[in-house]
């Protein structure tokens, strides 16, 4: 029974990874169930066995992607003790690499264009942002306690932090130049530090 569950989990992950790549290559609207099966190297019947339909696959893909990102980011900041170190590590993970960021945001923005009419997408997206805001709030509250940040409303500040992050990444994406990736990460850090009223040490 354990082996069967493990096999099913691996097969579902295989299909989700294939779906992600298919959307990267073809766009949300251009992907069919046959495309997903072809990318996964399985029959169309296999995809129908593990998922109800194409929309079900896409909903699970969005949930899998956003959960994986959040879990990675949380693991990274938990290793750091100080707020500033947590923030820097957080941004290191958010600005993962030009390739990873480009692929994720192209897929994610495609999903966002479908959110209005899809309750499941709305729920997954809301949970993703709740998670993101939670990280921002944790960093803002810790920094305030340490006296390195001056923040009156950590909940609102956390939302603003995520706005800066998404804004910088989307701007970078529109530039389509890998060399600018580190520059945008640096600008993002400076923007957030300004938002947090970072108390810089005297040199």
Keyword list:
9 helices; mainly alpha; 203 residues; Tetracycline Repressor, domain 2; 2 domains
How does this model look, in words?
- The protein has 203 residues and is mainly α.
- Helix content is 77%, strand content 0%.
- Helix 1 crosses helix 4, helix 4 packs parallel to helix 7 and helix 5 packs antiparallel against helix 7.
- It starts with a helix and ends in an 8-residue tail after the last helix.
SSE-based structural type? mainly alpha
CATH class categorisation of the largest domain: Mainly Alpha
Distance from first to last alpha carbon? 62 Å
- What is the fourth-level CATH superfamily of the largest domain? Tetracycline Repressor, domain 2
Order of helices and strands: HHHHHHHHH
CATH topology of the largest domain: Tetracycline Repressor, domain 2
Number of domains: 2
CATH architecture of the largest domain: Orthogonal Bundle
Indicate the mean pLDDT: 92
Q: How large a portion of the residues is in β-strands, by DSSP E? A: under 5%
Rg calculated over all Cα atoms: 19 Å
| Main sheet attributes: strand count, strand direction, barrel closure | none
Find the count of extended strands (DSSP E, 2+ residues): 0
Helix fraction, binned, reads over 70%
Runs with pLDDT <50, length 5+?
none
By DSSP (H or I, 4+ residues per run), the number of helices equals 9
- Sum up the overall morphology in one term: elongated
Organism: Halalkalibacter nanhaiisediminis
Keywords: DNA-binding, Repressor, Transcription, Transcription regulation
InterPro entries: BetI_C (IPR039538), Homeodomain-like_sf (IPR009057), HTH-type_Tx_Regulator (IPR050624), HTH_TetR (IPR001647), Tet_transcr_reg_TetR-rel_C_sf (IPR036271)
DNA-binding region: 32-51
